[in-house]
Amino acid sequence: MGTVLSISPATKKGTIMDAEAAANGVHKNEKSIKKHSMFVSLSWKKLVANSAKKSAKKVNPNPPPPSDPPASQVALLNSENTKKSHQAEEKKPKAPIPVPVPTVPPQNNDSLTQGIRLSSVQKQPSSLCLVSPRRVIIQASTGELLRCLGDFMCRRCYKLKELTSGEVILWFRNIDRTLLLQGWQDQGFITPANLVFVYLLCQDTVTDGINNSNELQGTFQTCLYLAYSYMGNEISYPLKPFMIESNRDVFWDLSLSIIDRMSAKMLLLNSDPHFFTEVFQDLKNQREVSDSNLDR
Fold it and tell me: Out of 3.60.20.10, 3.10.350.10, 1.20.1250.20, 1.10.472.10, which CATH number does the structure's domain 139-292 have?
């Protein structure tokens, strides 16, 4: 018996075509895979190349030197740094400044007492207490020194029998009161120190040859004018309270004569305390001499 093999041509053709299609599909897949791999590799290389170029652009191994900031910005930064440094210094505790302690030179008790008493003279114009070069304490009030001045004038002008100490004091007080009332001075002139100055001028100017009350008043008030001008608190004083009619013609001649003779002593009285003490003691003694004077 034989075997019959039947082959259908359509089926064979179809099988061959299917085999070829499958082969072609595999071939196409391989080609697409190859194409995709080539595309991926090319894209990766291009991406790496581009990134290298970008990094080369971004990183510069030799950067250019920085440009200088403008002058205004530099000045602003300097001022801010200066302020910060000052603030830091102010916050720091400052070291204490050494203060020298004054020392008093050694001196004896007598000279210390003299300095204290001389300083008290300026604070108490109504009375005066001094220590003479012989260390004898001299103390007197304004009223007492006024009486001493009046007694001196009465004793010096012994030819004027009717002259009294009160009359001389009244001449002095009337002038001082007039200047106060008229506003020429703010405070009275009659103080112990000023009385010593007036006595210095009168001691040299008033002579025992005066035999007229008007002449004595004119001479005395001329001395007062110079004392006010030299020792007074004001810049200038009027002439009318000091000048009387009988002394008008000789007022300036007598004033210049007193200045020529007594200028050095007037300066010495204010510069030398020993000389001032001597004159002060001499004026204080006029009261005692007057009490013992039997001629009046």
Answer: 1.10.472.10
